[in-house]
Amino acid sequence: MKSYLESWTIAAAALFPQALSGEPGFAEAPPEPPREDSFGFAAFLAGDVEGWFTVSLDGAILSAPLLGEGVDQKAGWGELLRETSEAAAGDLLATAGKKCRLEKFEAVSGRIEVSRAFQLSSGDRSWTILVRDETRAAESGASLASELERTPRALSPGLELLLDVELEASLRFGSREMPLGEILDLGPGDVVQLDRHVSDPVDLIIGDKIVARGEVVLVNGNFGLRVSEVAEPKKRLESIRCLF
Predict the structure, then answer these.
(1) CA 221 – CA 23 distance, rounded (Å)
(2) Residue 202: exposed, middle, or buried by beta-carbon count in 10 A (0-12, 13-18, 19+)?
(3) Mean pLDDT score across all residues of the chain
(4) 41 pairs with which residues across the strands?
(5) Helix 73-96 crosses helix 4-19 at what angle (to 10 degrees)?
(6) How many domains does the chain have?
């Protein structure tokens, strides 16, 4: 059966060259002890696969602007590794039918026991990435209990009919009211300033209702939304009713 580590390796090989400048190579390498200046992040998974998955990086990688000039490299690596963890969970579901979700993601310090080692290389420079896989298949009882917690309570027959209805979802980054004259004067290269700060959450819109808010992330080269807050069920249902 496919493991989370295998899915993580596939996700990392796809995302790292896309997200990092210079499109560095990513390949498996012989295991080695973590260096003194290494830093890392740990993801805790729950579902059909549960446990910790830890990634430790060579501290020298922070001196290379792989995530762009003027960027907090350590924070950037944290975000990239979070996205990789989520993409690995998606790959595991798509290829092995195993449902797991990222419950917690945090920075860790200290050395880790190594399950597998990889090398990230760009030009004549290379950096070591070490992983510790402490994930395992959940026991059937625990997995069933977890699944029951996520399953909605009994729905009315009328509402069950709506569960297979496909709805169009869109993200709203912001808005602005403009006079018609200004709109007609727009041309290539013009910038329209929206009423939302770059750090503010974006809206997930169904019909004409906001059903959730969150931050934009990169998933397998595509934009996605990491949900941070969700509207009450009643308000989400109202967004469906407005379509009929």
Answers:
(1) 13
(2) middle
(3) 82
(4) 55, 107
(5) 130
(6) 2
